[in-house]
Write a structure and sequence with these properties.
about 550 residues, alpha/beta, six-stranded antiparallel β-sheet, six-stranded mixed β-sheet, 17 helices
Length: about 550
């Protein structure tokens, strides 16, 4: 139950504290006095949009805080949050809007996500505005209404099956789309892979071939260079290096016995002679065995051309990069093959999920048919008491062409207010006043079954008057025997039925107009109801009528 509401710096309200009593609380006031501001403030607690436009003083924050009596109440939220946030009998919900536009939410002075604040508030208060009556024509609202009257398990099972089927179907469509795209590329990828495989790539081959080609392209110069070097070392003329070294050794040998350093020099000459003689042998070997093979040069050039072509084609350098591309192509082609198996398996899963969804949809439809019968039978006495003694009401479920998150059917509310008339879609045959009473009857039944702690009606009495207004007020008062009912009304007949009465009024200060609210008691209530019946000040007849209405 809502115990109190604190509003600060919100629209026309500077600062106000409102106490709410149990039972049937009515709120009245002139048009524009600020009754809707109260609903806006409550809407903020329920997660409504925060806007700095509501700040009366742009330099100060806006605060809306509600205190609820939650004795014996159980929330449908995360149990860990419940344990952490809850006191035994009181819950304080607060929403703040800072001048910067930032919004903050609190539960029992602990910061909470706005979603949690809204979830908790919506389980404690049900706000019904006159515009919400139009929801009776909304197919989604109708199904939700039936679901609130029945067992929640079939809906949960269906929506779980629907989500599972939908997810599998999306995955199948994704894989199928990828497969179609891959199929178009598969032949080209296979051609590229075969080309790289047939190239028999070996890391380091290109460098080796480039070195070999260097030799083959300069074969004649290499042979001539080796030959010339060999001739210099050991040629036929008298100036060959080895011959001159022999002469040098002979010259030193003749004087070796005369000079002590000569032996060392001879040893060094011997070493040089041996090294140069070996070099000469190598040069001679190369010259005698050097063969130029033009066919091999062509083979090397062709092989390098193939490697260069593949590297240019794939935009890489070296055999190692080509091998990486080859392996990647192989993996992608294998992936395509494996996707075929995955698609086949997924198609079977989709079929099974569809069958399960069908079964759960049938169970949900059966539960909704039971709920529709309950609604049809339970709502009629209330409609009769609201001035429609001949009214008839029925719920019809029509199969849908597609499976939706809400189910596989749509609900039609059939209605006729007159005896003998044909039952037709209430959206087309019910008047504004009849729709208001239909919604009031629906809210009365649903909230009684759900045991909603507090219900707020915002001018739901639009379109009704006279004796019907009295009946509406009586019904609200009867609802208030099991829950707290708050009604914002412009009808004196309804205001008179309240057990507690709050009045919203405007007051002009030096530089601005503000909204205020106060509780009316005793004769103040009589005067307010009489004023609603006539004018201000009320007539004696209006005063008398007001007293009679409040009996």
């Amino acid at each position: 139950m809502l115990n109190s509401l604190h509003i600060e710096n919100y629209a026309l309200i500077q600062k106000t504290d409102i106490s709410f009593a149990p039972g049937f609380v009515v709120i009245t006031g002139e048009t524009g006095a600020g009754k809707s501001i109260l609903l806006g403030a409550l809407g903020m607690l329920m997660g409504g949009r925060a806007d700095t436009a509501v700040l009366a003083d742009k330099e100060c924050k806006c605060v809306v805080e509600a205190v609820f009596d939650i004795t014996g109440f159980s929330f449908d939220i995360d149990p860990s949050l419940t344990d952490e946030l809850m006191c035994e009998d009181q819950l304080i919900l607060r929403r703040e809007i800072l001048p910067t536009g930032r919004s903050r939410a609190f539960a029992n002075d602990m910061p909470v996500p706005l979603k949690v604040l809204g979830s908790m508030a919506s389980q404690l208060v049900d706000i019904h505005s006159q515009n919400e009556t139009a929801q009776l024509s909304n197919p989604t609202f109708r199904l939700a209404l039936l679901d609130s009257l029945g067992d929640a398990v079939p809906l949960a099972r269906y929506q779980s099956a629907f989500a599972h089927y939908h997810n599998l179907k999306v995955e199948l469509e994704r894989l199928t789309s990828e497969e179609t795209k891959n199929r178009r590329e598969q032949d080209f990828m296979q051609f590229q892979l075969d080309e790289l495989v047939n190239a028999r790539l070996v890391v380091g081959e290109q460098e080796t071939l480039e070195q070999e080609l260097q030799i083959l392209e300069h074969a004649e110069a290499i042979r001539d260079g080796y030959g010339e070097a060999a001739s210099i070392l050991d040629g036929d003329d008298d100036y060959a290096v080895l011959m001159r070294l022999r002469d040098a050794k002979s010259a030193l040998s003749r004087i070796a016995s005369y000079h002590p350093d000569t032996e060392e020099l001879l040893k060094r000459l011997d070493s040089s002679f041996i090294e140069l003689d070996d070099i000469n042998s190598c040069l001679q070997h190369v010259v005698s065995n050097f063969n130029y093979d033009s066919g091999r040069q062509q083979e090397v050039e062709e092989r390098l051309a193939e490697l260069y072509r593949l590297e240019k084609k794939h935009g890489v350098d070296g055999e190692e990069a080509l091998l990486t591309i080859r392996d990647d192509l192989d993996d992608r082609l294998q992936s395509i093959a494996s996707k075929d198996e995955r698609i086949k398996s997924l198609m079977e899963d989709v079929d099974a999920a569809f069958t399960a969804m069908q079964s759960s949809a049938d169970a949900l439809a059966a539960e909704r048919r039971k709920a529709g019968k309950i609604l049809s039978e339970s709502i009629l006495p209330t409609l009769h008491s609201l001035g429609m003694p001949e009214a008839r009401f029925a719920v019809e479920l029509l199969p849908s062409d597609i499976y939706m998150h809400e189910g596989h059917e749509t609900a039609v509310f059939l209605f006729n207010a007159n005896r003998g008339g044909e039952l037709r879609d209430m959206s087309t045959v019910a008047s504004g006043g009849e729709k208001s009473r239909l919604m009031l009857a629906v809210k009365s039944m649903v909230n009684t079954r759900r045991m909603m702690p507090t219900v707020v009606f915002d001018e739901i009495d639009t379109g009704v008057s006279g004796d019907i207004s009295v009946a509406v007020g009586t019904m609200m008062r009867r609802m208030a025997e099991t829950m707290q009912v708050v009604a914002i009304t412009h009808l004196p007949q309804i205001a008179a039925r309240g057990t507690h009465h709050l009045k919203v009024y405007k007051e002009t200060q030096s530089d601005r107009t503000v909204s205020r609210i106060r509780e009316l008691t005793g004769d103040e209530r009589v005067v307010e109801v009489a004023t609603m019946l006539s004018n201000d000040p009320p007539t004696a007849a209006a005063m008398q009528t007001a007293k009679e209405l409040m009996v």
